[in-house]
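Dig into this one:

. . .
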Amino acid sequence: MVAKKARDWRSGRREGRSRMVQMTHHLVVSEGKETEPRYFEGVRAALDAANGRKVSIVVKGTGKHTLDLLGFAVEHCRYAPETFDHVWLVFDKDDFPAADFDAMERKCAELSDGSRTFHALWSNPCFELWPLLHLRYTSAPMSAAECQRALSQAMSKGFGVDYRKNIDGLFDLIEENREEALARAARLDGHHDSLGNMRPSDRNPATRVGDIFEELGPYLG
């Protein structure tokens, strides 16, 4: 099942913006070692510029997949000098087993407690869907290669920039369209709900990457 995961961490944060004065610590652990870490390093830099020391983010690009990625995050939390309030796992469907991909939300919920919340920021088919939704909407099923080509075409048309896996400055380039991306991601959720596609592995295309901005968006302005 998908999209029915507990959202208690959201409602708790929304109860009072005064809690924003307290520093929160975030760990972002990505499957990819190029695009995703560079994007989230852009998020970290923007947060530092906007709010100084109100938010702390550590970004790790691992090359590990699904359940191995979760294991890496758990181990990092165990030995890291800081205590993380939120752990964000960024991973793709690609060609990995559907059972492992679908299990991540449940396992994140099982690991979450009152002191730390784990989040499954999955994308189907791949992370590039998230920046693509900043530029246009699509509900057409696609492979990772097709999604990357679509993003390259959209970025070339919109910004005169060719997309590549190790592109720098991706967050800054597309950030002004974040609200549109969030709306399009929600529209995709409604599309899949209407089709009865409830498992993450069935929801192509769809992405949960935007969930991180439920927590970090208020700090970015």
Summary: The first strand starts at residue 24 and ends at 30. The radius of gyration is 16 Å. Strands lie at 24-30, 55-61, 86-92, 117-124, 206-207. The chain has a mean pLDDT of 89.
